[in-house]
Each structure stands twice: as structure tokens, then as C-alpha cells.
Amino acid sequence: MRKSIFLERKTFVFSPESIGKVDGIRVLERGHGYSTWIDFSLPMAEWVAGVFYEAIIGNKKIDRWTEREGPFSFLAEIKANAGGEFLRISRFGGAGIARTFCLCIPAGEKNFCWWAFGDTGIARTLATPDNEEWPKFVIRIKQGVYEEIFRIPLRKKNVVFLGDGMGKTVITGSLNVGQPGLSTYNTATVGVLGDGFMARDLTFENTAGPDAHQAVAFRSDSDQSIIENCEFLGNQDTLYARALRQLYNQCRIEGNVDFIFGNSAAVFQNSIILIRPRQLSPEHGETNTVTAHGRTDPAQSTGFVFQNCLINGTNEYMKLYYQNPKVHKNYLGRPWKEFSRTLFIDCYLGDLITPQGWMPWDRDFALSTLYYGELGNSGLGANLSARVPWSSQIPKEYTKAYSLRNFIQADEWISSSS
């Protein structure tokens, strides 16, 4: 049975000078820096989503400090006594001030772990806070397959999902619009509203079959969101980049019909985007579209920008494609809304992309108001000689408008300490 997971606030306050006990969880601070340690000595009966488990965690202490660059910086690594469990501490303040505590529980009988944040050694929560004051709230998701429907509401800001790698940490569901009462919006396996969401090293999946129509793996309304080295697997409507500013870097996205869609200002960099078989009998042919952007007003600063990405098919799909290329039609996108905007810059477009490149939504709808542009692409699918007349070749001098800095103001919110 699938569980619907909603992050709710559970607050625990510990004094930095003394031992605090709450629900059998004991936190002990001994000074700062290398001498800081945490002792979980009693059975635990609570975790970040409010689901109850029991786990006896042995004493652990700091084993070594490590430095890492980039938006995810973990400065301490703790080894466990036994059982494959471990603890990490991350610092966001000055030297020697442990400000974040993380307990990681192995996948299987137990699910997510939690990070408890603190300020100068004060741990104040063991579940996602209403996160205005904390720099990050990290949920460390160990290797395993998690059948969860996960929702992060608007008030939960700066939540970070950190897994063990694409295909290793998998969050999966199968909701789809064929089920009573479900809209496309509500089919998402993971849905995020809180700003500042970040994720790395995991897979978001919707296993609804190719005949299930809309079935979202990941939906985001999170402003200033960064997704890195993550995988999105589905068929129709895999990735719903619904609103606000989002960055996807070194990701892998699979689907077939409009499988990257929404009305966000989203940049996709260095990513692999693959078309997978659509129908139950795909050898008979189909029509697939990579994108369906939904800008509804010319004043909206939204659009999809793909930079240095690879657009091709899965191995399974390419075997079908080469058997009879004429019956398989694959397009870069079609206009979901009147002012749809999508650009491919310096990408590799495989030979499965049709010479026309872009597909109408319904006759001439939006053809005079959309903006579909290409520049500097390579591959057999990048030949522009037969492109539809309502698409554009981007003048090189205009590409600066679609840089990270100008398009999503990345210089204001993406840094090594993000």
C-alpha cells in the first residue's frame, strides 16, 4: 500500500549547554568542532514525514572532516559502530560550529532519514521546519526503492533531497489521470511548492504505463530550485516544471508525449533527454513531443532553455525506430499555450527528430505568437533546411538573454554556498 507523505512540523529544542531528552532522543554537545558528537541511545519512534518506525542507533562520533565544492557542501563524515548506519554533520556557520545534524537510516524496513538544524549547536527540529530561518533542510535518502507520494507544501522552504545516485535511490509512484478524481497536477510522485528546493543523486519515477496518459513523476512550483544529477522516468508528462525559476543540471529525463512541460523559467544544462516507446504496440508508429511550454502572456519571463543537452531515444526505442523510421515522428516541442517559448542551444539532436522540428498543437493555434528557437546544435536532427516556418534561428547576439544570469537571475541565488 502506498503512503502519502506530507512534511509536517515537529519541533524539538535542545540546550547547547546541557543534555536534552525528547521522545527518547538524546542530543549531547561537547564543545565545538572535532569534539562535537551526538548520542542516540534509545529506540527512535519518529521520523521526518511522521511515519513511525523503531531503530536502535548506536553511539557515533565524528570520524573525519571533509571539504566539498559546489552547492552541496558536507563538512563532516561520521562512521557507525555497526549495521551500515552512519551520521553526517554539515556546517553553514563559522569554524567549529556544528549547525546541522543528520541521521541516516538504511533503506528497506526504514525509509527517509532526517536532518535536524541548529544555530551554534542548538538543534531545533527533527522534521522540516517552516523554513524561513534555516539555510537548508536536508533529507538524506539512502539507496533503495521508495513507493511514496511526497508533497512539500509552500511553507516548507529550502528542502534538499540527497540520494545515493540515479537508479540507486528511487522514489516511485503510479498515479495517473485514468484514476478517479485525479488531475494531471495531482498525479505527481513528488510535488514541490516550497521555494529553494534542491535535489541530487536520485530518481523520480511514475510507472503508469504508456496507455495511462498523463502521469507526472516530478512537479515543481519551487522558485530558485536546483536539481542536479537526477533522473526523471515516465511516459506522458514526466517532468512538470510548472512555475518560477528552476535549474536542471546533468539530469536524465525520459518520456514520450509532452514529457517536459509547464510554465516555468527553466534551464536544462548538460542533460540527457530520451524518448521511450509510447504505445503498447509501438512498432506501428507514434508521434512524440519532447516539450510543451505553457506561457500564457507575452509579459511572462518564462520559457524552457536547453543548453548542451543530448536529445535522442532510449536503446529500446531506437531499435523500433530503425525498423521503420517513417512511422515514428518525434518533435522538439509543441505550443501548449499561446505564447509558448522553447530554445535549444548547442545541443545534440539525434536523427529521430523530424526534419520539421516542431509540431503544431491544433491547426494554427499559437503559431504566430510562440517563440521556438535553435542555435549551434549538431547531429542529424539539427538540420534546419526543412524546419517549420514559424520556428526561428536565434541570432547569436541574442543568446545572452537566455544565459543563467539573464534568464533566471542565477547570479543572485546560485553560489558555492547555495
Automatic annotation (TrEMBL):
Pathway: Glycan metabolism; pectin degradation; 2-dehydro-3-deoxy-D-gluconate from pectin: step 1/5. Its EC number is 3.1.1.11. The keyword Hydrolase applies. Gene3D superfamilies: Single-stranded right-handed beta-helix, Pectin lyase-like. It is found in: Secreted, Cell wall. SUPFAM superfamilies: Pectin lyase-like. One of its GO terms (molecular function) is pectinesterase activity. Pfam families: Pectinesterase (PF01095). It comes from the Eukaryota. This is pectinesterase. It comes from Macleaya cordata.
